[in-house]
Structures are given as C-alpha cells and as structure tokens.
Amino acid sequence: xxxxxxxxxxxxxxxxLHLRGILPGDxxxxxxxxxxxxAMRYLDRYSPKDLNDVHAYIQTIEDGIARxxxxxxxxxxxxxxxxxxxxxxxxxxxxNARAELGYMLMPEFWNKGLATEALQKIIGVxxxxxxxxxxxxxxxxxNEASRKLLLKAGFVKEAYFREDFYFNGRFIDSxxxxxxxxDPRDY
Length: 187
Prior knowledge:
Radius of gyration: 16 Å
Largest sheet: 8 strands, mixed
Low-confidence stretches: none
Mean pLDDT: 96
Helix content: 25-40%
Number of strands: 8
Order of helices and strands: EEHHHEEEHEHEE
C-alpha cells in the first residue's frame, strides 16, 4: 500500500512550465477556465456559477491534498505565474498503487506541446516519487485531442464503456486509457 505525503507540496518545473499548488488568487483564472465552453466541451462536469463555486472547488482540492487522496497542480508558464490550466492525480487508490489523471488547458494554449510537457512531468513523478504502479485516464470518446495526448505518452486503450456516465440529462460513453510503470516510454 502506498504511503503518500503531499506536504510540502511538490512544485515541479519543466522546460517551459511551472507546476505549482492552487493559490487563493487563482480563483478568477479557474473560473475563466472552467466556464470556457471550448475547454469544458468534453469534461462532462458542470461549470461553476460564480466564484463561490470556485472557492468550494479549491477547498475540495485542498482537502484531497491534506488527506493525500488527490493532488492538483496549477499549470503556469515559467515567465508568467498566472494559471493557464490544471493537471492532477484524482481518485488515488493507495491499495492498488493506481491514480486517475485529469488535465485541462485554456484553449489559447492548445497545440503548443504544453499539455504533453506537463503530462510527461507528472507521469515521471507519479511513478518515480509517488510509487504508482499504474495510471488511468477516463475520457469522453469525442475528445480526439486527449486521446492523441494519451497515446503519445504511451497509454494504452483498455476499455470502452457504453453509456456508463450520466451527465446533463443523458448517458455518455467513456474510454479508459492506462499506463503501467513497466510500460516503455520515450522519456
């Protein structure tokens, strides 16, 4: 069983990015991100109605970090500390050394390799520092960009569940991708 401790918070850097904790001052940027129709198109979650919803979301993030059951990083450019996205390990299963990945970027930062850069960094941290045996990602099958990102990172499609998720008045399919610690990777 994993024995995780996210204190102190593990800040990370890549060639172009600073992955840091969510700060109280990030609330307006999180609101912009999570109310952007393009960014939320395949997330299948409700957008916040106001900053109070964002504050509740930030509290949920802080609770997960305090309990060592989830960790969310703000994605920022090294030269600009403003949040441009998030990347996370959600639903950490300590018994089975498994975590679910989640990520999103503001659309103006798409197609620049930033999601790949952030994902590669946390994959390495997840396997080498946290001790995960495997990682999964659950995507909306319509999200071709996310599928390409995962395949590029070495993930393998493990499952396709038909109408297994109810959201916004309808059932939605899910595609599950996984990466094992022992899987070959190019980084």
